[in-house]
Design goal:
Elements lengths: L1 E9 L14 E2 L14 H15 L5 H11 L1 H7 L12 H9 L4 H16 L5 H6 L8 E4 L8 E6 L2 H6 L4 E5 L4 E7 L2 H15 L16 E9 L1
Parallel strand pairs: 2-5
Antiparallel strand pairs: 1-6, 1-7, 3-6, 4-5
Bound molecules: zinc ion (ZN).
Pfam families: RAMPs
Organism: Sulfolobus acidocaldarius (strain ATCC 33909 / DSM 639 / JCM 8929 / NBRC 15157 / NCIMB 11770)
Protein name: CRISPR type III-associated protein domain-containing protein
């Protein structure tokens, strides 16, 4: 077992949240179990996974399938008329589902486009092997002690859609607290993927939480310690 302690240092505030409250304020994540603002370990796992996906563009199911779908989008649109129903990416387990339902109309549309990718892609792909997917159990465990976070309210954000509805803009609760967690890796492949994910985070390719396109959620990641 390889143990990596990772620390995320935000350079802009991050917003981990559910839905806006009726007074048009985006609250920070809280629940009936924890009455204070907090982060779920699954949020941290999802963030690391996104970074890993961008770290392995040539072997990740999500990137390969989405690239192929985008370049064949007109072909797909001719067969699936409701554009909202078009799926833009497939994970390894989704591909298994497609193959199992190959006779359904919808699956056959995607299989026609993704055939080459599916033949070439080693499934589960590197990212799914490490993070788990569908019935594939991952090779890592995230250990994060849930604790209350300090939050600050940012008022009057002029996000175009919100601004049209409310001239005062949107209020958002954000945090700038560092996040420290431990990753337990089963093997070297897992360790390698986590190290690459950390460097992708530091390139600001992925951001944490909501409103990423508005500049929230830029964090630096540091491996504080690594031991076997
Ligand atoms: Zn995969």
């Amino acid at each position: 077992m390889i143990k990596l302690v990772i620390r995320l240092e935000p350079s802009t505030g991050y917003v981990i949240s559910g839905e806006p409250s009726p007074d048009r304020k985006v609250e920070f994540n809280a629940s009936i179990f924890y009455s204070y603002p907090y982060i779920n370990p699954s949020t941290i796992k999802g963030f690391l996974r996104s970074a890993a996906v961008y770290g392995y563009p040539d072997v990740s199911c999500e990137i390969l399938s989405s690239k192929t779908i985008i370049s064949n989008i007109d072909r797909i649109k001719k067969k699936i008329h409701n554009e909202e129903q078009i799926r833009l990416s497939f994970m390894c387990s989704d591909i298994e589902d497609l193959l199992e339902n190959r006779n359904s109309r919808e699956a056959s549309v995607y299989l026609e486009v993704l055939g080459d990718i599916i033949r070439k892609l080693k499934r589960p792909c590197k990212v799914c092997r490490v993070f788990g997917n569908g019935s594939v159990k991952g090779k890592l465990r995230i250990i994060y002690q849930i604790r209350p976070l300090n939050t600050t309210e940012i008022k009057g954000l002029k996000f175009s859609r919100e601004y049209k509805e409310n001239r005062e803009g949107l209020s958002v609760m954000m945090s700038k607290d560092p996040i420290e967690f431990t990753v337990l890796c089963e093997d070297k492949e897992c360790q390698e993927v986590i190290k690459r994910a950390v460097s992708v985070i530091n390139d600001s390719v992925v951001r944490l939480g909501r409103f990423k396109s508005r500049g929230f959620g830029i964090v630096n990641a540091k491996i504080v310690s690594m031991s076997t």
